[in-house]
Amino acid sequence: MNRALALVALLCAACGARQQPTPESFFDDLPPPELLSPHAAEPDFVLRQHVTARWATGETEFDAVVQKHEGALRIVALSPTGQPGFVITLDADLEVHVENRTDRALPFRPERILADVQKVFFPWVEGVPDEDGVRRGEAFGLEVIERWPEGRITERTFLSADGSVESRVRYERWDARRIAPRRAILTHETLGYELTVETLEEILLID
Fold first, then answer.
1. What is the topology classification, in CATH, of domain 2-205?
2. Alpha helical stretches, state H, the chain
């Protein structure tokens, strides 16, 4: 845990993020997405990341720490001035808590930020891939299809009930990582935005 706290302190000392206008406000009018329990992800971990979000009218970049520990999922990000920006926590009871130290609104509602983190880094389908390296499952009314060539996931696709792509995650450069590859790209087809997540450091919190 000392290492995890040191990562948060490191982010608080980093440079400010480059920001452009935030996404269209209709995102806030949508119902909040359903969330997995933080307990779904094992083992506990800390990820130090650089995130780039792009949408039709702009983009934003920021550094963040994602931590799953003791039944809670926590996201710590920086403000544009490089100060501690916001902290989003999903507790074991699926309650969402937000601490915003900036004078700006979050780019997305906190539940959507948590859902995107879970789409990329949490497990969604159980079992062994078939002979073609494919795993299939269902969650929250979506069909989930994963591709696992050579034992590493390279793509996860979420399909709506009509068969259209709701969102897709592509994974690049796993190396020896267990939780996060060096780069993951989440494309949300229905909402029109893309997140590129570069994981700079992965720490497993194993007793």
1. outer membrane lipoprotein receptor (LolB), chain A (2.50.20)
2. 2-12, 26-29, 110-121
Give the residue extent of every domain in the chain: 2-205
Residue 105: how many other CB atoms lie within 10 Å:
12
pTM over 0.70: yes
Strand partners, 51: 62, 197
Query: What is the Cα–Cα distance from 66 to 87, expressed in whole angstroms?
Result: 10
Per-residue tokens: 92: 């074991």
DSSP-based helix, strand, coil % in the chain, nearest 5 = 15, 45, 40
Q: Is the dihedral of CA 178, 60, 140, 89 positive or negative?
A: positive
Residue-level length of the chain: 207
Query: How far, in Å, CA of 76 to CA of 65, rounded?
Result: 5
Specify the 3-state DSSP secondary structure of 185: strand
Q: What pLDDT digit, counting tens, does each position of 74-107 carry?
A: 999 866 665 668 899 999 999 999 998 877 777 6
Q: Give tens-digit pLDDT for 24-66.
A: 455 667 788 999 999 999 999 999 999 999 988 888 888 899 9
Q: How far apart are CA 48 and CA 200, in angstroms?
A: 5
Per DSSP, the three-state class of 101 is coil
